[in-house]
Design goal:
alpha/beta; 8-stranded mixed beta sheet; two-stranded antiparallel ribbon; 25% strand
C-alpha cells in the first residue's frame, strides 16, 4: 500500500505566516506540521510515500525530508502542483507513483493522537472501493468548516456535505482516505467546483453512490491547522502528552510498545449501525 501526503494550497488563512513558508512547514509544538503526518503513515506500516506540494516554497520539503530514510521511509517521491487546483487534482498527480496499488491519502495538516494502523489494515484486507476516517465533533461551528457525512437507517454513509450550514451529523471527515486504484479513473470525470477546483468530496460521493464506501471513527485527539485561531490548541495538547523532553520521533509512538512513553489510546472504532 502506498501513501500520498498532500501539502499544497496557498495557506491564505494563515497569512502572514505563509508569506515565508508553506503552511505545512510551520511548527506545531516541537517539529514542523508535516512531520506528524509522516509519522502517522510510517507507524501504520506505509513506507513508500509521495509528497505533493506547490508554490514557491516547495524546495523546503526536500531540504527538510531529503530521501526520507531518517524518518523511516523506504522510498520518498515528490510531486509538484503548478497551481491550486484542489485536493483531487493534487491526488491525480500521484497516479504513476501509486501504479495500481491501493493508496492512503492524508492531508498534511492532520494531527492525530492515536494510530491509523487499524484503518490501513482493514483496507488492506479488502482493498476495494474507498474507506474514510471520521471523527466526532461536538461544536456545530466547527462542523461548518468540514465535510460532514449523512447516514442512512442502516448506519452507512449516504452522502457527504461540504461545509454545511446545517450539519447532518456530529461527525467530521478528517482528511484521511483510503482508495483503490480506480480513484485515478474517477478524478478525470469530476467537474470543477464553484471555486474552480476538483473536490475530494466529489470523489468520496462517487464511491458512496456506488455503494463502495466504508468508514472508521477515530478516538482521541484530532486537529487540522487551517486557521490561526485553531493553531494554539494542538501545541498545548501535544505538550500535555507524556512524550518526554525529546518529543515523539520517527520509530516511536503508540505502535512501538510501552517504552514510547505515550498513553495507549484505542485509535479506531466502528460506528454502531442503526
Amino acid at each position: 500500500m502506498k501513501g500520498v501526503i498532500l501539502a499544497g494550497g496557498t495557506g491564505s488563512r494563515l497569512h502572514p505566516l505563509t508569506t515565508i513558508t508553506n503552511k505545512h512547514l510551520l511548527p506545531i509544538y516541537d517539529r514542523p506540521m508535516v512531520n506528524f503526518c509522516i509519522e502517522a503513515l510510517v507507524k501504520a506500516g506505509i513506507t513508500e510515500i509521495m509528497l505533493v506540494t506547490g508554490g514557491t516554497h516547495a524546495g523546503e520539503f526536500l531540504r527538510l525530508l531529503g530521501n526520507g530514510h531518517e524518518f523511516g521511509i523506504d522510498r520518498l517521491s515528490y510531486g509538484y502542483q503548478e497551481r491550486p487546483g484542489g485536493i483531487a487534482e493534487a491526488l491525480g498527480l500521484a497516479e504513476r507513483f501509486v501504479d495500481g496499488d491501493p493508496v492512503l491519502v492524508m492531508l498534511a495538516d492532520n494531527i492525530v493522537e492515536g494510530s491509523i494502523r487499524p484503518m490501513v489494515e482493514s483496507f488492506q484486507a479488502d482493498p476495494h472501493g474507498a474507506r474514510i476516517l471520521l471523527t466526532p465533533v461536538e461544536e456545530p461551528e466547527h462542523l461548518r468548516h468540514l465535510g460532514v457525512p449523512a447516514f442512512d437507517g442502516e448506519g452507512s454513509i449516504s452522502g457527504i456535505v461540504e461545509k454545511p450550514d446545517d450539519p447532518p451529523s456530529r461527525y467530521g471527515v478528517t482528511g484521511i482516505y483510503c482508495y483503490d486504484a480506480d480513484v485515478f479513473e474517477v478524478i478525470p470525470t469530476l467537474e470543477p467546483s464553484g471555486r474552480g477546483e476538483l473536490e475530494i468530496t466529489d470523489v468520496n460521493n462517487h464511491y458512496i453512490a456506488l455503494g463502495a464506501m466504508a468508514f472508521d471513527v477515530l478516538e482521541g485527539f484530532w486537529g487540522r491547522r487551517g486557521r490561526v485561531d485553531r493553531r494554539l490548541l494542538p501545541g498545548q495538547r501535544l505538550r500535555s502528552f507524556p512524550w518526554g523532553e525529546q518529543g515523539l520521533r520517527a520509530g516511536s509512538g503508540p505502535d512501538s510498545g510501552p517504552s514510547s512513553g505515550l498513553v495507549p489510546v484505542p485509535a479506531v472504532v466502528h460506528l454502531p449501525s442503526g
